[in-house]
Every structure is written in C-alpha cells, then in structure tokens.
Design a protein that fits this description.
about 110 residues; Rieske Iron-sulfur Protein; five-stranded antiparallel beta sheet; four-stranded antiparallel beta sheet; 12 strands; globular; binds FE2/S2 (inorganic) cluster
C-alpha cells in the first residue's frame, strides 16, 4: 500500500540541489530542478555511489564516484559505467512540505540529510 513520506520542506532544498532521504531501509535521492521536485533511488546501480551528492545540471545528475549520469525526472540511465535505470518515486508538495510516495506501510517521518 502506498504511503506518503514527509521528506522535508521546500525551503530546505534549493534549486539545483539534492538531498538524501532515508527511511525504513529505503535510500532516496530527492532533487529540486528549477522548482520541480523529483525522487529517485539514491543508490547508483553501478557500485552504490550516493546519487544525492552528485552534481545536478538541469534534470541530469552525475554520480560522484565514477560519472554515470541519470535523468532524475524518469530515472533513465544516460551514461555508463551504470547501465540500469533508477527507481522513481512520486513527489507531492502540500503547503511547503515535500512528500514522497513509497510502498512502505509506516507513517513515520523520514530522516533527512543535506
Ligand atoms: S558508483 Fe555510480 S558510477 Fe560508479
């Protein structure tokens, strides 16, 4: 059953930045692309690099470890050495709060890291 996870507030994630959201074994990278928010798997499928720490240019994030690139709007892998796409999570903004829809059953608030 889908659950809305309270990730952070809009003011804590400025445009062009990413944030790691961990919750119940999930590691999600949340990005602000010019005011639009996108959430994808936070673990690079190549060797588990931290994608939330990658450089974001437009909708493309570059893995900080070996340079693979992904479109954060759809999870598509754009450049090797990674070859697999990322999981994508729906994002909702309600009254300045950013929610990520997950498949967990918990109603607890996520930890967040900038
Ligand atoms: S861990 Fe991301 S490109 Fe290697």
């Amino acid at each position: 059953m889908p659950t809305r996870l309270k990730a952070t507030t809009v003011d804590r994630l400025p445009p062009g930045r990413g944030m790691e959201v961990k919750h119940k074994g999930l590691n999600i990278a949340l990005f602000n692309v010019e005011g639009e928010f996108y959430a994808v798997s936070g673990v690079c499928p190549h060797s588990k690099g931290p994608l939330a720490q990658g450089r974001l240019r437009g909708r493309v994030v570059t893995c900080p470890w070996h340079g693979a690139q992904f479109d954060v709007s759809n999870g598509r892998c754009l450049r090797r050495p990674a070859t697999d796409d990322l999981s994508v999570y729906p994002v909702y903004v309600v009254e300045n709060i950013i929610y990520i829809e997950t498949q967990t059953n918990s109603q607890e608030e996520a930890q967040w890291h900038t």
